[in-house]
Amino acid sequence: MRSLELFAGAGGLGLGLHAAGFSPQKVVEWDRYCCDTLRENRERASTGVRSWSDITEGDVRSESFARYEGVLDLVSGGPPCQPFSMGGRHRAYDDARDMFPQAIRAVREARPKAFVFENVKGLTRASFRNYFSYVQLQLEHPEVTARPDEGWEDHLARLERHHTSGQRYDLHYRVVTRLLNAADYGVPQKRERVFFVGFRDDLGLEWNFPAPTHTQEALVSDQFRGDYWDRHNIAAPPGAVAPRFLTSLANQSERPNTAPWRTVRDAVADLPDPQTDPKAAKSIPNHKFQPGARAYPGHTGSPLDFPAKTLKAGVHGVPGGENMMVKSDGSVRYFTVRESARLQTFPDDFVFHGSWSETMRQLGNAVPVELAAVVGRSVAALLMPSGRGQLQ
């Protein structure tokens, strides 16, 4: 199925959607380092980027999408999220870096069967509630465009009137949104992203977000019963299971019917420690020890036997507390780029271009590949001729 990938970043969303069956006809990304990463991986036959023949390094605002009208199954991307990130500067809808208008323009011009856009959890904050509604209504009614000199709040009011009137222009989408925790879908990281998924109204399709497949309860159950520690061939450390879970777990005769959350140990245990075994680590791409990690209040690193904290890009460099692991002896060190890539479920043969800080920025801004694949497979199943009209 043919797609258009905008604001591609290092390729997390695109790789996941590619694995789900979507083939991008064009990939647009303005950041030079991200484009270098994508181009480098295009030369590697075993990566999903191999077939991405048209990688455009440039401003999406200068692109026209009308030539794709009638030929695309999907438009996807992660419009720059800095205005809404809880870890960045909160300029919100007054921020020139807000690229949602360009995502909506791409939908309006290309008229795809469906779209998948994602953004950071911060967009769901109460202070952004009106703008969240504004984005959703524009995606539902992409042809109800802002008039010259019309402010976003006036445009929102007009969209609300149009939406409640029951009138529909030629182009209309059925849109659903949800905040997803990547850990609930097999990603070894507690990372929340908000997704906007829409299907063109004339297709008459019904869709819902996939149900979670992994849970904290299942992880704690496995640790309490010992299965988790047996898998790693280690003894359970003292206090490994939080006391509040012990009473309920002791009375359970059956395990939860979901898979356990994946942990940092699950993700990286088979990699050599780059600090203690740099010679072995050298043979693995992007797996180099980075010195200087330290813990301080509020920034204590990610424990090995729980999903990682959210990897972050940072405004002024890499925030160490979020991008460190706590080793078995209680010491901390930075995650390597390769370990971070595993926490974001990038394949091991996908390499990153740039310094440690630069590549960590790329990873901190990325969507976990497996989370994108889960959503993408569900969308693809409905768009396939055999899946038309079936609720997933």
Characterise this structure:
By secondary structure, this protein is an alpha/beta fold. Among the domains are: 2-212 and 368-387, Vaccinia Virus protein VP39 (Rossmann fold, 3-Layer(aba) Sandwich), CATH 3.40.50.150; 215-257, no CATH class. Helix content is 30%, strand content 14%. The protein has helices at 12-19, 32-42, 100-110, 129-140, 152-165, 216-225, 227-231, 243-250, 264-268, 278-281, 337-343, 356-364, 369-383; strands at residues 2-6, 23-29, 55-57, 74-77, 114-120, 173-181, 192-200, 214-215, 259-260, 302-303, 324-326, 332-334. It has a seven-stranded mixed sheet with strand order 3-2-1-4-5-7-6, with helices on both faces. Strand 1 (2-6), helix 1 and strand 2 (23-29) form a beta-alpha-beta unit. Helix 1 (12-19) packs across helix 13 and helix 4 packs across helix 5. The longest helix has 15 residues, at 369-383. It is globular. The protein starts with a strand and ends in a 9-residue tail after the last helix. The model is unreliable at 88-92 (pLDDT under 50).
Provide the descriptors you would attach to this structure in a database record.
392 residues, alpha/beta, Rossmann fold, globular
How are the secondary structure elements laid out?
Elements: E1 2-6, H1 12-19, E2 23-29, H2 32-42, E3 55-57, E4 74-77, H3 100-110, E5 114-120, H4 129-140, H5 152-165, E6 173-181, E7 192-200, E8 214-215, H6 216-225, H7 227-231, H8 243-250, E9 259-260, H9 264-268, H10 278-281, E10 302-303, E11 324-326, E12 332-334, H11 337-343, H12 356-364, H13 369-383
Parallel strand pairs: 1-2, 1-4, 2-3, 4-5, 8-9, 10-11
Antiparallel strand pairs: 5-7, 6-7, 11-12
